[in-house]
Design brief:
single chain; 336 residues; alpha+beta; five-stranded antiparallel sheet; two-stranded antiparallel sheet; 15 helices; disordered N terminus; SLT_2; Lytic murein transglycosylase B
Length: 336
Amino acid sequence: MTVIRASRPAGFLAALIAPLLLCVAPVSAQTHPGQAALVQEVVRDTGKDAATLNALLDGAKRQQSILDAISRPAEAKPWRDYRPIFVTDKRINDGIAFYREHRDLLQRIGTQYGVDPSYIVAIVGVETSYGRNTGSYKVLDALVTLGLYYPPRAKFFREQLKELLEMPANHLAGPLDTLTGSYAGAQGWGQFMPTSIRDFAVDADHDGRIDLQGSLPDIFASVANYFAGHGWVSGEPVAARAQPDASARPITIKDSRPQWPLEQLEAWGYAPLQSLPPAQMTTLQTLDGVNGPEYWFTFQNFYVITRYNRSPLYAMSVHQLAQAIAAGVGQVDSAR
């Protein structure tokens, strides 16, 4: 007997498969690699709207000039070439004038946070020439470029990008997609990264927002709070010259954290050129100076400056600029 099977309607398979397809999550289109996952994390952590976040990221551009800039940082230079970039007569004189113009505010904030005001001034001097050059890159472009297209430091910069996207609007100087800063995504006169804004920025003028671009109280207090939060010790030294003798023991260090009492380094052949407590904790920096190696004892406050920028060249520039500004202010005051 021949069995005749009924033929199925042409749309049968389509009707069967369609409900199954509805159960599969759609794949989000993304402008940048890793964008979909990043947006998903921000939505999960903050409840922000995914469409708005995607629109912001879609508008950001990968900038080759940013990738080029991060591959040739100034900190790769020797000290003899690095110092003249930041410790110049103009920057010192501008710093003296800036300190004197804002003396009352600087001294009030310095006292509040236990930080020498000359170092607050030196930070904004080294970072942005006292607010004159805060950077022309779009912050969003910078962090998208480095967080999603720069594998050597993608972890760090992706964290900064995520923090920027999560940041409350009143913690920023303006709408997120209009912010400008350095090629690394740092903002304002003190060049704060997003996690530093989150952890240390201060609404010192009590207007309900943090403005590191336009509010001097917020700018100064945020820098001071950053130093205080990383362990600045009021009245303690930052750095002092050392003189090695002929038998001085070579010293290798991993970072600028103080490791030994000063008397230990003296026993190893390094003499301080000024009076310092023998028990003062220190380490030794060797810098490639114009006239050969320079040896410096550096202390806790020097290490704190390296939390702003880990390069000892940067920290030494801030220190020497601060010292020159303080000396210049003192000379002007004594001459009046």
